[in-house]
Design goal:
Layout (H helix, E strand, L loop, with lengths): L4 H12 L4 H13 L3 H14 L4 H13 L3 H12 L6 H13 L3 H14 L6 H6 L26 E2 L11 H16 L1 H6 L6 E6 L6 H12 L2 E5 L1 H4 L6 H15 L3 E5 L15 H15 L9 E7 L17 E4 L5 H12 L9 H6 L6 H22 L7 H9 L6 H14 L10 H7 L1
Parallel strand pairs: 2-5, 2-6, 3-4, 4-5
Antiparallel strand pairs: 1-3
Helix pairs in contact: 1-2, 2-3, 2-4, 3-4, 4-5, 4-6, 5-6, 5-17, 6-7, 9-11, 13-14, 15-17, 17-18
Length: 444
C-alpha cells in the first residue's frame, strides 16, 4: 500500500488511462525515486509492453532490478541495447552496477569507463571507488602523461565446470572436443597426422546463449588453466599500451600451458581495419594477428584460443585465415530440451517442490540462458518474500516459474535473428555463414 498521496493519485490516473505511456513512465520513475522498488518494477514492465524499445523505460526497469539485487535480470534487460554501438551512456553505468553485483569487476570497469568517456556528467565516485578506478578532480592540473607500468602478474583460473554443467548444445560441445580438446588429450594420435595441440575457435551467436560458460567448461573438461580476457584487461588510453597488454596476456597463457585463453566481445579487439579511422586501433588488430601466429610454429602449442562475439560479421577477415580463428562454431539459442536442462541446473541448489521443467521450457520460447536466469531470479525473489512472512523456507514450484516467465520477454534473439538473416541471405559470398542457413530457414 502506498503511503504517498501524490503517488496514489498518479497510480489512479494510470489505471484510468492504461495506454498513456508518458504517464506510466512518470509513475514508474517516481516510484523508483521514492524506493517503492517492486511497484516501480511492475509499472516499468507495464510501460515496456506499450513501448518495447523505449530506452528510458528499459533503463528504469534495469535500475529497479539492480536495486533489488536482481543483477542477472538487469543485464538481460539491457543486453539488446548494449550490443549496439553508440548505446546511451546511462545504460553503461547501470550495466556496470549489475556486472559488479555479479562479480564481473573487469567488465564492470570497462562499461563504466566507456560510459563516462562519452558523458562525464555520469561520473559516480562511489561506484568508481568500488571498481578501483581513480576519479579525476577538476582542480588537479594534468601533468605530462606517464605511460602506465606493465600489468602485474595475473592469476590463472582453474575452472570447476565441465561440459556436464553445460545444458544442451551437444553438437557444439562435440565440435569443440574434436577441434580443441582431443589433440591435447591424445597427442600421439594427432601428431601422426601432423595436427598440433592448440588453435583458435570463434564462438558466435545471440547474446546470452552461454558462450562464456561454454569456454570455461572447455577448460574444466581438459583440466587446463583458464584465462578470461575482458576488454578492460587490454584496452588502454596510452598509445602502445594496449598492444603490450595483449602480448602479456598471450605470454601468460604460454607459461601456463595447457591453457584456454578466452576473449569475450572479441569484435571490439578484432574489428575490420577498413572501418577504423585511427592508426593505433589498426595496430592493435595487427598485434592480435601476430600473437595468434606466434613467433614460430610452436609458439602457441598447447594454447587453445577461444573467442566469443555476437557480431562475427564485423570481425576483420584476416582472423579467419587458417591457423587463426579459422574455425567458426555457431552457439544457437537453446531449444526446448536445452531450456529445460538449463532450468534444472539453475534450480538445483534451491528448495524445490515437484517440478515440471518441460512445461516451463515450453513457456519460454526464444529465451536464452541469461533470460532464464532472470526468470529464476524473479521467482526466487517472490519465494523469499513468502518464506520471510512464513518464517520458514517454502519450496519453489512449477507455478512460481511459470508466473515469473509470464512477465518476462526474450531479450535479444529476435533482433539478432533479423540481423543474422540479412548477412546469411545478402552478404554471404564467401560462404562464411553457411552454417547459419539451415537454422535461419527453420526459424524464419
Amino acid at each position: 500500500m502506498l503511503d504517498d498521496g501524490g503517488l496514489r493519485a498518479l497510480r489512479e490516473a494510470a489505471r484510468l488511462s492504461p495506454d498513456n505511456l508518458p504517464l506510466r513512465r512518470h509513475l514508474a520513475e517516481q516510484l523508483l525515486a521514492k524506493g517503492y522498488l517492486a511497484d516501480a518494477e511492475a509499472e516499468f514492465r507495464a510501460a515496456l509492453l506499450l513501448a518495447p524499445k523505449d530506452v528510458d523505460v528499459t533503463a528504469g526497469l534495469a535500475e529497479a532490478f539492480v536495486r533489488q539485487s536482481a543483477h542477472g535480470a538487469a543485464l538481460a534487460a539491457l543486453e539488446p541495447f548494449l550490443a549496439s554501438p553508440g548505446y546511451p551512456p546511462r545504460l553503461g553505468i547501470i550495466a556496470a552496477k549489475a556486472l559488479l553485483g555479479e562479480g564481473e569487476t573487469g567488465k564492470a570497469a570497462y562499461r563504466y569507463y566507456e560510459a563516462i568517456s562519452r558523458d562525464a556528467s555520469l561520473e559516480d565516485p562511489e561506484l568508481a571507488a568500488r571498481l578501483a578506478i581513480p576519479v579525476p578532480t577538476p582542480s588537479a592540473a594534468p601533468a605530462d602523461p606517464v605511460p602506465p607500468s606493465p600489468p602485474e602478474e595475473e592469476e590463472v583460473e582453474r575452472s570447476k565446470h565441465t561440459f556436464a554443467d553445460v545444458a544442451g548444445m551437444e553438437a557444439v560441445k562435440e565440435s569443440l572436443r574434436v577441434k580443441l580438446l582431443l589433440p591435447l588429450q591424445q597427442p600421439e594420435l594427432f601428431a601422426a597426422y601432423g595436427k598440433r595441440a592448440g588453435g583458435g575457435v570463434l564462438l558466435y551467436g545471440p547474446p546470452g546463449a552461454g558462450k562464456t560458460h561454454l569456454a570455461r567448461a572447455a577448460a574444466g573438461e581438459l583440466g587446463a588453466a583458464f584465462v578470461n580476457v575482458g576488454l578492460a584487461d587490454i584496452l588502454d588510453m596510452y598509445v602502445g599500451s594496449s598492444e603490450r597488454n595483449l602480448h602479456a596476456t598471450f605470454d601468460l597463457a604460454r607459461r601456463n600451458r595447457p591453457c584456454v585463453l578466452f576473449f569475450d566481445e572479441v569484435d571490439a579487439l578484432a574489428a575490420r581495419r577498413s572501418d577504423m579511422r585511427q592508426a593505433h586501433a589498426r595496430q592493435l588488430v595487427n598485434q592480435f594477428l601476430a600473437e595468434l601466429d606466434g613467433v614460430d610454429q610452436n609458439a602457441n602449442e598447447g594454447v587453445l584460443v577461444l573467442a566469443a562475439t555476437n557480431a562475427p560479421w564485423y570481425i576483420d577477415a584476416a582472423f579467419r585465415r587458417p591457423g587463426r580463428f579459422d574455425q567458426l562454431v555457431f552457439v544457437p539459442p537453446p531449444d526446448t530440451a536445452a531450456r529445460a536442462a538449463i532450468l534444472r541446473i539453475l534450480c538445483r541448489d534451491k528448495p524445490l517442490a515437484e517440478m515440471d521443467f518441460d512445461a516451463v521450457a515450453r513457456a519460454t520460447e526464444h529465451m536464452v540462458g541469461a533470460d532464464l536466469k532472470g526468470v529464476v531470479d524473479r521467482a526466487v525473489e517472490v519465494k523469499l518474500q513468502q518464506s520471510i512472512s512464513a518464517g520458514r523456507p517454502i519450496p519453489m514450484s512449477t507455478t512460481d516459474l511459470l508466473a515469473a516467465a509470464k512477465g518476462a520477454k526474450p531479450t535479444a534473439v529476435r533482433e539478432w535473428l533479423a540481423t543474422a538473416r540479412n548477412y546469411v541471405l545478402h552478404a554471404n559470398e564467401s560462404g562464411a555463414w553457411d552454417e547459419l542457413m539451415p537454422w535461419i530457414k527453420a526459424k524464419w
